[in-house]
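User: These chains co-purify. Model them together.
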Amino acid sequence: VSGAFWTIAEASALIAQRKLSPVELVRASLQRIARLDGALHAFVHLDAEGALARARAAEAAIAKDGPRTKLDGIPIGLKDIYDTKDMPTTAHSRQLQGRVPARDATCTERLAAAGTVLLGKLATHEFAFGGPSFDLPWPPARNPWHPDHFTGGSSSGTGAAVASGMVLAGLGSDTGGSIRLPAALCGLAGLKPTYGLVPRTGVIPLAWSLDHAGPMAWTVEDCALMLQAIAGFDAGDPASAERAVPDFSAHLDDGARGLRIGVVREFHERENPVNEATRRAIEDAIEFYRREGAEVSDVKLAPLAEWRACGLVILLAEGFCVHAKWMRESSEKYGELLRDRLVLGALIGATDYVEAQRRRRQLTDEMGRAIKDLDILLTATVPAEAPRIDRVPKWGIVEQPNFTSACNVTGFPALSICTGYGEGGLPLAMQLIGKPFDEPTLLRAGHAYERAMAWRARRPALAA
Amino acid sequence: MESRHITRAEFDALLARAGIALSEAKADEIFRAYASLERLLALVRGHAPPEAEPATIYEIPRGDA
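Assistant: Joint model of the two components:
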């Protein structure tokens, strides 16, 4: 077991056949964490004893009654904004250092009920917005493909932990791209589900109307398994949708034939041009889909900058509202980066916030019209491989465009998947966007591409 | 789209209204970053007619997925 890399689907099949012990699987994870986390800083709280106890309980239950779900006995981690009643939840901030919530987040509960073994809490940019920061109680997570490089954020620890094989999957959160960006830069699959599909009850907010909870895993197939456990109505989240939860794995193997894909070429070719390796990888993916029988056409949307502006104005205004009391009374407890970024939110007037929400409705309608006769939109997730962690600009959030905010503005589901590796040996990625609540088709499209490529066989050398 | 450029005095007034106290050097830095935010604000202004309502909801197909 030690040294092996498993996907959830692989480990789950072996556990069901009693060929893989959840206890041994967790021990292997703990050994990998002991070996690597001094360099990667993926965990802010590791509960090794608790994890082993949970693994023993899972193993005993599986021996008696068989696995409850395909997640039974699977080691996972949670971004440290998901409440956990038996371990601290700090949002990677001095403001909440030592806080142990009274209750689990709904997602925490659901994953436990599915049989997962929680190893601990994973690094995040402070309150899912301020990072990478070097003046917090815990250092920022590092990219397993090269520890001098950025993981992306804000679900930085989840990206590092999954890519290095410390856990088989984890949860992130996504308000402007915080699942998809670290998934892209760390070489994972990361799904921002439709707004309302996964409850945020017990998840520390950044900006309520943009926040999404979702899975990050090595493969699209594993994201589907994680999503199955956490999706569904919860009255504790006022945005939670009362809809039946489909089987997210049911159509994974249906292939790409017949899919209608619209390429938002303007985004990644002209408005925020990606580097040559990313562009070529996207073109290769488009060619793959054509070859497999998908219909591919080009689609135009409003300029990328307008999606970004709309999302960021809302994010900054709601974000300051979340933090206003602390910003006035104990701002010295924040890292400099988050504190300074939050100040911008204090400067946005009510009229501009409402204007952004009015623009949001127009943009949402526009994306709906663009995808109406299609199944998937395709563009980049990031413009290039991960930069060095010491070269991430503090004010990039207001100065640089991004490809991910559009789906926080609209709530449409979006998936980032690995499209190979660049000259520096770091992962490349593309983004697939689906119709609201049509995650089965989105996951099908991602899985069709992913299973045909060799990328998933390659793991970071450091973790081998 | 309407673009505005506030003065440093107006910026300081916004900070005061928000109850945020900053050192002079920090206020200088954030004032410079605010210029980028002003460009973003200009992009969200003036698109919608008066009758257009804000939305924190969106239309989705009815029925089960």
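Chain A has a mean pLDDT of 97.
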